[in-house]
Every structure is written in structure tokens, then in C-alpha cells.
Description:
The chain is an alpha+beta fold. It has a domain at 4-104 and 120-131 and 244-253 and 264-276: Clavaminate synthase-like (Double-stranded beta-helix), CATH 3.60.130. It has 5 helices and 18 strands. It has a 7-stranded mixed beta sheet with strand order 1-2-3-16-8-18-4, with helices on one face. It has a 4-stranded antiparallel beta sheet with strand order 7-17-9-15. It has a 3-stranded antiparallel beta sheet with strand order 11-10-14. A hairpin with a 6-residue loop joins strand 1 and strand 2.
Amino acid sequence: MEHTNVADIQIRPVSAALGMEICGVDLSEPLDHEKFNRIQQAWHDGLILLIRGQRLEEDDQVRFCEQFGVLGSVLNKHTGGGRHPSVMYISNIKENGALIGALPDGEMYFHSDQCYVEKPAMATMLYAMEIPKKGGDTIFSNMYKAYETLPSELKIKLEGLMAVNVYDYEASGTKRGSKIAEGVKHFAHPVFRTHPVTKRKALYVNRLMTDHIIGLPINESNDILNFLFDHAEQAEFTYAHKWTVGDIIIWDNRCTLHARSDFDSSERRKLRRITVLGEKPF
Ligand code: SIN
């Protein structure tokens, strides 16, 4: 088996906000440690990695993703589980009348994966298999920049505070300040978290899943959260990725948010998704 030399990898920024594109790798082949270390450093620098033009079977994507850490398991096999226990599909395609994947259609607000559990996924990887002609972009936001550019009085006020994150699969979004329905998963995490590798601080609240900030009156919590959501989603912190079949992206849930733009539900969309286990945010 042939390995490309590390010198053959090219790394370039994807946008002013975040992202590094890696060229010169074929992920259908194993990556040696030296090359992976270079890729992992680019990931920490860029927060998301983009690699285009890949042709990957489930096993190839699993092998690449495993280099980032221990893979998460797909908990609900009825929402798009693949052959491998860590693989799930995001898709609106139906076979024999049933969806083959999860999160089928429509816009999704900004969020960080699994922020409503004690140890949210550290990373999420998507591989594009079928893509609509227009829309269905995944939009990423740089939460280091969001934190660093907050007014200093807000940084001081929110330092050390926790926010409750919740995701109700039955509801289209969160109803902030309302009682969290019985059985719906939720967990409190710091409003500002520290990345365990880069040691940088990131804003860790999001429009889809953050319900309230503990210890503030509900009106104040709502006002501050609305300010933080608008702040985190501004154009200068974001990059919208227009997928092409064969693209692979891995994002770091500890320092980014992501959202999805709407698309024509009569068009087919299918991405293969794997997550990497993470630590309790601090
Ligand atoms: C997700 O939020 O994980 C889905 C992203 C997408 O479908 O683009």
C-alpha cells in the first residue's frame, strides 16, 4: 500500500471565519501517524476540516474518524443507523415507505451536537453522498471568536454561570423559559467552556438547544441568550458549506456551532455521519 508523503499534503484556509481544507489525501487508504498529526493540528487551528473528492465506504470513514478518538454509538437504530454501530445517515430518502436516515428535511437552527447530555460528542464527521441542487448547506460558526468579541461586562457577568441545554425531538425548537417536558434530555453546562487541547475559551450556548441561564431571572436570561445567539451567528464568524458529493467535513463541537439551510424536500439528500466521544465541558 502506498502512502503519500506528508510533504504532499496541502492545507489552506476555507474562509476568514474558520475552516481548513486538506488537499492531497485519499482517505480510502490508511493515513500514517505523521500525516494524521498534521491534519489534526490543522483541525485545531481551523475548527473544521474539509476534504473534497473522496470515495469512501463505511469502513473507510470509520477508520479515519477513529484517529480522532473513540467513536460514539448510534443510540436509535430506527433513525438512520448504518451497518457499523457508529454510523448513521442523515437523509430524507425513503425506501419501502420508510426514511433511511435521521434529520430528514428543513432548516435547522444553530446548535452544538449533544450539548443536552453530560458528555457531548467532541466531534462530528459528515460525508456527502447525495446532495440537492440548491440549499441544504451546513453553516458553521466560530465560537472562540464569538467569546473573544463579547463586551467585557457581559464576559464578567456570565463567567462561571451554567446554562441548561435541552433537545426535544418532538418539538421544532426550544421554548425558552417553559417547563422542560418530562423525559426530555437536558443538562447544564458552562456558558463559556475551555477547549481541553487549545486551552482557548468558547461561547457554549445555542439557539436550538439552550433553554435558560441558571441563576438569572427568566426575562434577563431570555434577553441575554437572544443577544448571544445573534452575536454568535453574525456573518463574520460563519462559513456556509455548499456540499458536493465526495466532501467530508469534521467539526469540533467544543468550539463551533452548526446549522442547516432549507432545501427542496422533493430532492434527495444523504450524508453519512459519525461522532467522536467527548468529555464533560468545563
Ligand atoms: C446536523 O445538525 O447534524 C445536520 C447537519 C446537516 O444536515 O447539514
